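Lecture notes, unit on protein representations.

Consider one protein chain, 196 amino acids long.
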Amino acid sequence: MRRDSSETKRKILTVCVRLFLEQGYKNTSVGQIVDEAGVARGSYLNLFPTKDRVLLELTETMFGGQFGVARSIADSKLPPVYAYAVETAIQLTLTELNENLREIYIEAYTQKEASEFIFLETAKELYQIFGPYQPELTARDFYDMEIGSASIMRGYMAHPCDEELTLEKKLRLFLTMSLRAYNVPKEEMEQAIRFV
């Protein structure tokens, strides 16, 4: 029974990723998901009582390993701030690749459960990365700061790049604001920004 449930979940999530990327999160109906996955509506609803639960599952997958990917790109000999800069660059770049992917990210940063997951997971990373710059701050302080930082991130994601706001400029602006808030020394901040 558990294997069947896990296989059904995998089918549903695979179909959701494809449909969300092809036609957008909001334009994808539960009926389409159920039909394309070839599962019973009841099976879908047992696993995902709402479409937002699918988004939460995808958010957990997307954000659960993003800092790991960033760390593998940034040399381990570099300061941890570089992993943060790379992780930011990954997110902002992905939203420029596909309008439907942009919508998924914006929804994730907007919906209560998904955004809470992002805040909690990112705050853990922020505390590890930026704690040495502000030793008086607690893990909760970094969670509170992440709420504001995530709002800025969502704003930049929602505004597509153009001739004036290039991806390079968007990355520089976001990283400058966030790294200042985390008290990163100017020289180290500039090096991390140049790196990405």
